[in-house]
Fold each of these.
Amino acid sequence: MPRVTLVEGINLALARALADDPDVVLIGEDIGVNGGVFRATAGLQQRFGALRVQDTPLAEGLIGGMAVGMASQGLKVVAEIQFMGFLYPALDQIANHMARMRNRTRGRLTCPVVMRMPHGGGIHAPEHHSESLEVLLAHHAGLRVLCPSSPARAYGLLLAAIRDPDPVMFLEPTRLYRLAKQDVLDDGRALPLDEAVVLREGDDVTLVTWGAMVHDTLRAADELMNEKISCEVIDLSSLSPIDHDTILESVGHTGRLVIVHEAARNAGLGAEIAATVAEKALYDLLAPVVRVTGYDTVMPYFAMERSYILSVARIVDAAKQTLQG
Amino acid sequence: MKTIAQFAIGYEQLLDAEGRACGDLPPFANDADAMRRMYSMMVLCRLFDTKAINLQRTGRLGTYAPCTGHEATHVAVGAAMRPEDVLCPVYREYGTQIWRGVTLTEILTYWAGDERGTDFAGPREDFPWCVPIGSQTPHAAGVAMAFKMRRQPRCAVAYIGDGGTSQGAFHEAINLAGAHRLPVVFVVVNNGWAISVPVAQQTAAQTFAQKGLGNGVPGVQCDGNDILAVRKVMEDALERARSGEGPTVVEAVTYRLSDHTTADDASRYRPQGELDAAWQREPLLRTRRFMEQRGFWDESREAALRADCVAQIEAAVHGYQNRPAADTDHMFDHLFAHPPAALGEQMLTARQYGKTGSH
């Protein structure tokens, strides 16, 4: 079983999908000879040819639009947006066409498209390269939004996304691309969609998070355990739809909830989770819900990055806050 | 300084405003049945337009985008395409769509605010109407990319208006199509007005046909009220695309003889004299005159055609008005192939409170 990084897990899944299904096509900027700026598509054009692994002109709106056209003909398009800050021109196509083509044609035309894009900061990149814009996608009916937290989950979720007959936004935590290696069996098995994962069981506080923050949250849980505070850690994984049942079940057990996300607080997914817990499990709560999030500022240039991205200390403090009186 | 590249834009016109031939006629122009079929479709569109506007004015249809004045362009494009080609329309090219098998009932159903109108019984792979201006052009390029990848001898056709050419998506789509020599034709319907903005304020370009040149894609302009010219130019462009020579930008110069939509009042911004002059160039009469000169048409055929069109339209309106009602599940049924479980709860709420919202 190969030990691979998250970006190598993505590469394995893409190669598997290309080999298994002749309708799978990769498009994006610099994904061909160059293998993608993060090397997610390394070697794939050499193996599968320049039509199935296509370098596109430098236009994200076009990438979204041509994906819609190709998908309408039954191709399964996996498009790469090079950095999440460059997503905006493609939003017109994603929101106005990709997300709703099935609905507006009553199922006559569909959009089996996966839009892959890096998510979040932490790699000292220039401006517009470190955004966490999941809410822009999660707000649109007709889309699924996924965010893996490990090489194995990246492999299995990406295969699930490619095989799903509807558009899936696939957010890849930039900071995790090469952070750690994991054994990944390239067996072509997809993970289930729409499900959150309980990564660690605990009794005192539920910590819900996704993407790169999963790792910091697990470290926070370790520190808290040293202080005899037992945390249940949930990797949300599916950012739309949200698996509220798994969260509610956990909160029913612990009575305390901390939501951790790198994205800005205002109208973030944390608000959606907290509101649902308030609606459905208010009387299970032993303490107010706490959100640990990015600030409502512009994502700063990287010199200030370590002050923006939330720390293990903030997560630990938030969890303790729920345990005070 | 020496010249390193030169470009030219051709103009095609085969019928003058009086219906006299003014160029080398293509074979179909001498085919009585072909000409009758195209003319009949133009008349159907004109009469359908009038009916749809009346339905809107009397509260039996939502906002409607009329096609009056564009019939030659729309019908000629439909006639030039093959059934297996794919159309990416804007929202008023009914002549092309009906030619390809979209029904009058479907058109009315769409403009009644009912998604079922876009579930075309006929051209199953054609795109639905596209309201966000210009965003349909990359779809056509993508469809053409699929054709190229699968080595299918098929073409995509995207419509766009004169205003739409200002959108970045239009240029991005042409650029991709040129770079990959994709089998696609971009039809710019230059009808003079983008709602209230005239062409002179839209662009400094002499023609819209030349909008492809900067992207390495040739362009040609034709008289969009001349059904012979549009069909000839489209057939040439489609043949070029089908044989692997790449895309073309075709500009059809016509005129929007109607308001932009039934929600618009063009008299607020458009000089009456310009409209009156445009009626002198409208496409139906010149086509009929051409056919009468050739002995293809006469008054009795005209009367029979109009009676047949009225019957077709009445039947379509009847079908539209008597279509089954949609229940609230309609909003949820086609969001996903595999809907997330959480939508079920909202679907139940919608059932409980259907038709109770303010409006």
Note: The first strand of chain A starts at residue 3 and ends at 4.
Amino acid sequence: MPLRETAPKLSPDQYEKNFAEISPAMDSRQAAIEAARCLYCFDAPCIAACPTHIDVPAFIKKISTGNLRGSAREILTANILGHSCGRVCPTEALCEGACVMHEKGESPIEIGRLQRYAVDYVLDNKIELFSAGAPNGKRVACIGSGPASLACAAELAKWGYDVTVFDRNELPGGLNSYGIAAYKLRTADSIREVDLVRQLGVKFRQKMVVGADISFADLEKQFDAVFVGVGLGETWALNLPGEDLHGVYGAIEFIEETKVRPFNEVEIGRRVACIGAGNTAIDVVTAARRLGVEIVYLVYRRGEPEMPAFAYEYQLAKQDAVSFLWQTQPIRVLGQNGVVTGLECVRTQLGSPDAKGRRSPAPVPGTEFKLVVDMVVRAVGQKPATDFLKAIKGLEVNPDGTVKINDLHQTGNAKYFAGGDCTNGGKEVVDAVAEGMAAARGLDAWLGAPRGFS
Amino acid sequence: MADLTVKFAGVTSPNPFWLASGPPTNTGGQVMRAFDAGWGGAVWKTIGEPIVNTSSRYGAIDLNGVKMMGLNNIELISDRSPETNFREIYEVKKRYPKNLVIASLMVESKRESWHAMVRRAEDAGSDLLELNFGCPHGMSERGMGAAVGQVPEYTEMITTWVKEVARIPVIVKLTPNVISVTHIAAAAERGGADAVSLINTINSLMGVDLATFAPRPVVGGKSSHGGYCGPAVKPIALHLLSTVAKNSRIPISGIGGIGYWNDAAEHIALGATTVQVCTAAMHYGFRIVEDMIDGLSQYMDDRGFRTIENFRGRAVPNVKDWGDLDLNYKVIAKINAELCIGCQLCYVACEDGAHQCIESYKESAKKNAGGFGVHVPRIIEDDCVGCNLCALVCPVENCITMKEVDSGDAPMSWNDRVRQSSATLTLPFPSGD
């Protein structure tokens, strides 16, 4: 069933231009100049601000001396996904936000781009920096192949563990491959990074659903421990009338379409409304505009100050000429013949701040209005993967659906460890990496640290 | 408005800014363009028997993206005949009678050869002569340049030969590649030199290409030592200038690391009457003199100096032997917490590289724009020795300053202590130059 009206198709060149990397690679001269700006702070605040605590001044110093291999080793030792983090990290809220240059009245060092410059060098030149540890005879399964699992698997492989990753998708990489706007990270680059982990001897078994294609009992029999890095499930429903019409998408599902299909084959309406104002919503509205959508509305119940998206992300949406409808709540998806034709909304009034300090919105009667749109995208967060988690005996979940873990990242079932979005409720790639690595240390400690170094 | 004209060894220069002998003064065309740009004088590229140069010839040191902090060359004197050079000097002087042309000369160490060359330079209309006793490479192996300038007796002898026939003032250019430049300056003065200029370039090897192990600048995979110049050499030049200024009665033309008006002003404050510039002109062209003239005039106006003589040599008496410095004078570091950006470079410099007088603090009331804490270190004032290192490494202007504190003791130098304490066997601190 086609959408009522679709966005006009663009030329292949135009799609490529629209989805060109937003933060282009540095050439060696740019990198040298930027690296020279770094003050090499003692006990640098950028290190503390990074969840994986990459020694930023150390890797930048190595760039300035031309030691790119050493620089990449510094980065990837702390964060095996340094490549994608260099592209997708909200650096202005992390390392670059902590940079002392702000206080000096200058722009912060472009840490993300420098990181990418160093890591690109070893990937482009196929330089192998790490090797698998001497086999220690222990086998670990990782469920899911997103950032948390990849980080956990790489760490364990370096210590001699025999690691197998089970993943339900065709391609490995999890959200790095499927869930990040293409102008930030291309699927091919995510796969290139997965190969770093593969080089350590980690085996990937794609299109394998644990619990269906292999039973939990078999998994427990074959492996000494299991890491659960399954992330979150599908996007929450809005529970609005008309939500089942054709043309209503979940945000993650929509982004996935833009990642796995050629741009001209992505189903996209001429006018699109996106509900929600988090970072994923920004990915949706910017991707939509870049696919040629005429008008994109970002519909949010609260006001601009309450917007959860990072300032940098908000800027991206503004640059892409997205229309922001603040204090606007959707009440009904309108349709005809089973296809979306519009979104009915109502203005809201903000009450006093709740426990989290956020002001709760209340509809203002009589302010209802209709938007003419051909597509509606829900970007209101993802559900926990509750059904999957329930199948693991003894594993406990918190009230918000996240997996309960101890200091070792161990779940209620001692054999299972967990990290990433399924334990933190949905954070950045770099947080998932930090947690995957922490879980690897916990798992290793629980097994008595049988590390084998080659 | 300040008057920049100077009298140097009896000759008037429109301003103290001269181009030093080198590639920028190789031809009449260059020198005329330089005079149009505002240069007061030009020391012609050294004239002698034409030589053959290598390719390549120059090497440089960059620092953190700043190009040419230091430059070296293995180029020799003019590769053009004396006839050509003297004809062009004549043409230039005809068109620019007020600007000074200084003929730089280098000939084999024979009395009659020097006599002949001096006469030709004078006949061409040169205003002054500069004897190149300083080139550290290529010519010295042939018994010229630094081979002369490193031996006081040779310096005096050849200066005497030149003065036997010269009717215009003679400058002797001094090499820094000696144990004591004052001995050479004194020899030149004994030989009758009307002035000295310093420094010539410093012997150097610019580096090694780590892929091919060829030293730089590379000539077919090999290299040779050459003369070092540029911003990096200014402190060496200033030191040698100050020692000559203290001990000499004849005028000095200061050379070494001058790229801006303030570099020139420092040379003048240490006794130079004129200054010579080469590397900066090689880097940026002749127009750099515009701000040299403007900036120096502004400075002089601000300070109430009407002429160069008003402040020339003013810093010379303040250059002391170490043994005469007041050991009871004390400064300590102060950190301006408002300006501090929390890089803690002062902390690690003091802790690892100096005297362990700064404390690092994790907690800080100060937050940056992104809400991240700014760790402002603290000076342990009782321990601070006042070494300056923290202020030198601090990347923020005026954040760390050195404040004078009263030590409560009367001034006392090392030499005072030695004089007062007859019981000790300590020798007086040797006076260096």
Note: Chain B touches chain A through 21 residues (CB under 8 Å).
